[in-house]
Write a structure and sequence with these properties.
single chain; 267 residues; alpha/beta; Rossmann fold; eleven-stranded mixed sheet; globular
């Protein structure tokens, strides 16, 4: 089986232009991941790419095999995950086309398998700071170097999906001061931490959510519009991620790898 040190949850647009891409099938104790994993070399680093929704977008947010996806990445040796996602804005200052590097989340999902610790061993993992501060700092700095409007930190509220929020729900989220709304960040980031992996969120803002304060004129978002804006910004996102891979130091300078799962994988 191939090896990698950095994992990216992104579609074929991230690696289609790279030479010598190898696609592999990975089995896990939690079933198959969303798709085959593509391995490639970027700036001398081995990188694993996996579309979280599947290549044909066949998995809605609440049906993504999150545990299999994260386990597959870790079994390849991955210690850092970059998790870009499409997201809506809950605040006027966060505009479509901006990138938000979240540092907190609020879970509003239900029924998703969200831990590897199901007994008989019980482990309580600290999630006070769920996202890797080192990756976020580097990501924000690089985005600004590239001329991308980047917000350093922000709370993403994760809804169950696949439906979008009602106006009342969206107004509630906005009134609480949260910045971003999305359907996939939970439990992805939690599972990464349980496996001692760093996780960087890059929320690409595709729209204003319908409950934005003072903007009753906002039309309800559609999946087609989300994908249109995301694809229009895909080149900027790809450029940022490739530059980040090139600049990352070999050794981690954070505490994300100190959870409690040492011994599960031999790096």
């Amino acid at each position: 089986m191939g090896r990698a040190e950095i994992g990216i949850f992104g579609g074929s647009g991230f690696y289609s232009l790279l030479p010598d891409v190898e696609e592999i099938k990975v089995d896990t104790p939690y079933g198959p991941p969303s798709d085959r994993i593509a391995l490639a070399t970027v700036a001398g680093r081995r990188v694993a790419f996996l579309p979280r929704h599947g290549r044909d977008h066949q998995y809605p947010p609440h049906r993504i095999p999150y545990r299999a996806n994260l386990w597959a990445m870790r079994s390849l040796g991955v210690t850092r995950i970059i998790g870009p996602c499409a997201a809506g804005s809950l605040q006027p200052a966060v505009q479509p086309g901006d990138f938000v590097f979240a540092d907190q989340f609020v879970d509003r999902t239900s029924g998703r398998p969200d831990t590897f610790f199901e007994g008989p061993v019980t482990v309580h993992v600290s999630l006070a700071d769920p996202y890797c501060p080192e990756l976020r700092r580097r990501g924000v700095g690089l985005a600004r170097e590239l001329g991308i409007t980047a917000h350093d930190g922000g709370t993403v509220v994760v809804i169950q999906g696949p439906r979008f929020s009602t106006r009342a729900e969206s107004q509630w989220f906005s009134s609480l001061g949260w910045q971003v709304i999305n359907m996939t960040q939970y439990p992805e980031v939690v599972l990464a931490r349980e496996l001692d992996m760093c996780y960087l969120n890059i929320s690409l803002i595709t729209d204003y959510d319908v409950g934005l304060a003072g903007r009753e004129d906002i039309a309800p978002v559609t999946a087609e519009e989300v994908m249109r804006v995301f694809k229009a910004n895909n080149a900027r996102l790809r450029r940022l991620i490739m530059a980040l891979i090139e600049r990352l130091p070999a050794e981690r300078g954070c505490d994300c790898g100190l959870t409690s799962t040492r011994g599960r994988f031999a790096d």
